[in-house]
Amino acid sequence: MEDSSTEPTQEEVSEKDHDAFTVVIGSKRSVLEGEGTSDANVKDVAVESFSVSVRGKVLLKNATVKISHGKKYGLVGSNGTGKSTLLKLLAWRKIPVPKNIDLLYVEQEVVADEKTALQVVVSAKEELVKLREEAEALQNSDGDCGEQLVELYERLQVLGSDAAEAQASKILAGLGFTKEMQVRATESFSGGWRMRISLARALFVQPSLLLLDEPTNHLDLRAVLWLEEYLCLWKKTLVVVSHDRDFLNTVCTDVIQLHEQKLHLYHGNYDKFETGYEQRRKEMNKKFEIYEKQVKAAKRSGVRAQQEKVKDKAKFAAKKEASKRKAVDEDGPAPEAPKKDKGYSVEFHFPEPTELTPPLLQLLEVSFCYPDRPDFKLSDVDVGIDMGTRVAIVGPNGAGKSTLLNLLAGDLVPTEGEVSRSQKLRIGRYSQHFVDLLTMGETPVEYLLRLHPNPHLEGSAINSQEAVRAKLGKFGLPGDNHITPIVNLSGGQKARVVFASISMSKPHILLLDEPTNHLDMQSIDALADALDEFSGGVVLVSHDSRLISRVCEDEEKSQIWVVEDGTVSFFDGTFEEYKEELQIQIREEVDE
């Protein structure tokens, strides 16, 4: 499961790029959009032996997929393997989806215009809007339209017209929109909030097949927990790509793994998948070892026929096993000899910081407001960070979590109060903003050598470039990408470059703002391990509850800062207790 750059970035692949893809099903090339069975009773998506390539790069080879009606699938795999591409191909029906199955793929933010958020969500039900318009036109006409109106009202009742606004409002509220926000024009919202409106539209429409790609990336913790509860009650089919382990564990009934150009189905949530995959990997590697020994023995014999016999025997065994799973038929792909599954591991590491006398960093009675934002203010903030401190900053989006991090980092100057910093304090800062500011024309090696001209690897006398490449390798960036211009890297690969740079700066305190957005599951676990062993201070803003739980595991050193209504307060309890309180509130809302 190694991280590669085989999958085109989202910017490179859009709906205009249909022709960039080649989808072959059996021996037949799929070129017709909407191709698939027209049987009105078919509710499952089932495709055997299909291959996908984009601009000559193979993403899937002789793969088989079955998406059963009413199940909720997590689509997983390391960065760059083709998960988002697979969702797009399903949405475009280049992978055949029965025509009677209505599907919706949440990919782009809604168009920014004068319509309110609530109007945009309700308008997603096109038939409902059309019938309402017809009914209004008949009401305003001079003719006798009584029978037509009765018929229209009956159809509107079936579509739930009376409760449409209330249902849409409830979904928007769950995703963090206040009553005031729901009646604001969409053009007044940022891209992240407009993505939430797109998600709300999809939940409101309730398509037979819902496709979601990283739906939690633009959500705060409370909205993520609400979405979990909402999707747990989802009665139709769901396929979701997500790097949030807790989200997948809560929502999914099955997991589809995209691995080594194949799709593997596992029943159960993500934890069960992980156990099943590790068992399967061990079995595969055991078969490979036996096969490899037999091949070597045949080669030593020098008899060509013996060598071919070993290969044929392995292929026969593979075909027999596949037939048991009904994965291939007589006309299906040729069976393959056993292969070794090397797995995929990433290791993040932040060096041991030098000791500094406390306090390292304090905000003393600090207040802050933006000159052009009279509606926003943080008041009387009194917080501190020392070596070993673990802080999770929680609260709704827009409340000031990132502003608080910027005050701690020194990127913003308080309008009132005092900031106290140790003179020798080094801060490691991560945010999506920092990823965007990478020098796109440089390679990762050039970028890091410019920022850190004299790197060294502990216990080694290798030169600067080798030290930088060793560091990048540790953070999971493949060797080929070390000398690739940063502009050509995926989001996850760029994030690794930023983390490598932070590590090389030898920080005393780490300020991390949504560090998981571009990382795969293995990298998030590696980050959690690195933060666990780091003896400096850590301040974290994240919607990933598992990462927060890992960072704030030690109750004595951990603090929960709640940013809400212009203040920063301390939650008296553990993060798990804070999460449980939120979940109780959310369940009451969802059950209303």
From TrEMBL:
All residue ranges annotated as the ABC transporter domain in the record: 45-292, 361-590
Region (Disordered): 314-344
Pfam family, one: ABC_tran
Chain intervals with Basic and acidic residues compositional bias: 314-329
Keywords in alphabetical order: ATP-binding, Nucleotide-binding, Repeat
PANTHER family from the UniProt entry: ABC TRANSPORTER DOMAIN-CONTAINING PROTEIN (PTHR19211:SF128), ATP-BINDING TRANSPORT PROTEIN-RELATED (PTHR19211)
Protein name in UniProt: ABC transporter domain-containing protein
Organism: Brassica rapa subsp. trilocularis
Gene that encodes the chain: A04p006470.1_BraROA
